[in-house]
Structure of Ribonuclease 3-like isoform X3:
Amino acid sequence: MKQTMAAKSRSKTISLLALFIGILCLYFPVTTTAVVAESGAAVDLLYLTLVWPGTLCRTGKCCMPTKGKPAIDFLIEDLKTMDQYGQIIQNSKPKCSFSINQMSSLIPDLYSNWCNLSCPCNDGFTNWKKTWCNYGRCSELNQTSYIMTALNLTASANLLEVFQVNGIVPSSSDSYKLGDIYIALMANLGLSTQVECVTITKGASNSTLLSKINFCVSADGQNFINCPFDIKQTCDRELWFYPFTRKQLKKCRKDYVSSGGLIKMATEKHLAM
């Protein structure tokens, strides 16, 4: 009985602590500007950014990828390398070798969870290459491990499930409090997350939409860690989390497809030098 009461007390204390920290994040944000540092600087952490496609399609054009079908979920934007102050560590070397054949087993997951919904329609290859060439080469991981790390972290975060168990589901009729978003994230992922929003204007009214969730990750890509910095607050206290369906994606004609070309396995068409 005493153990049960103690457990309840600890649970209540944790909830109150999460709420208190959430309030601090909302009202007293410590902001940092993402400055690009030279590739020789020390990489202290990785920074995973997941985007909500429902907001992307609501605020602009979104197109069906030329390969695969996007997951009805948060999608990977990139995985950056950073120092402890929030400065981006970026590789400045002009040449970069990126071989798709090295990670052929990851292609189905990449098409589903790391697709690029921007227009014109594309196969997502440019995003994977950019992430590796700009950031991955600064890390301690090889190409396949770096790309796999982004996929594994996304699956581990399981954002839609985290929100659903806390009563937060995509909706066109109900908005949510930013504080509740943070509490749901902190209860499951600690202080590793940072939220970004976009604002759209209709007539005289503004609406804030949930756009991205960022995660601070250990430099080896194994664990979510507490973010040692904060970002500029872009969310109001009330925000929208609109639904996403594949019907929102525009299908492109062949002459509207990105010139990057399609990935053809068993070749090195996409070996970039």
Residues 48 and 195 are 12 Å apart (CA to CA). The first strand starts at residue 36 and ends at 37. The longest helix spans residues 2-27. The chain is about 30% helix and 15% strand.
